[in-house]
Amino acid sequence: MAFAYEALFQKLWFKEWFAGIYIWQWDTRSTPDYAAKSPNFSPRFKPAENAIAKWFGKR
Known about the structure:
This protein has 59 residues and is mainly alpha-helical. The protein has a domain at 1-7 and 31-59. 46% of the residues lie in helices and 0% in strands. It is built from three helices and no strands. The chain has helices spanning 2-12, 32-37, 47-56. Helix 1 runs parallel beside helix 3.
């Protein structure tokens, strides 16, 4: 999942028309222990969260 977000941002970030993305299933009730074992789509507490934070931190 982290590789997918990284690829997305590398390709789209500097496009004039790119205004952002919608993060599907951001699980606000998740915990780090649950996320480590969970196969769900939420990037919270997973390596993908770091990729998202890296790119949105550039704004």
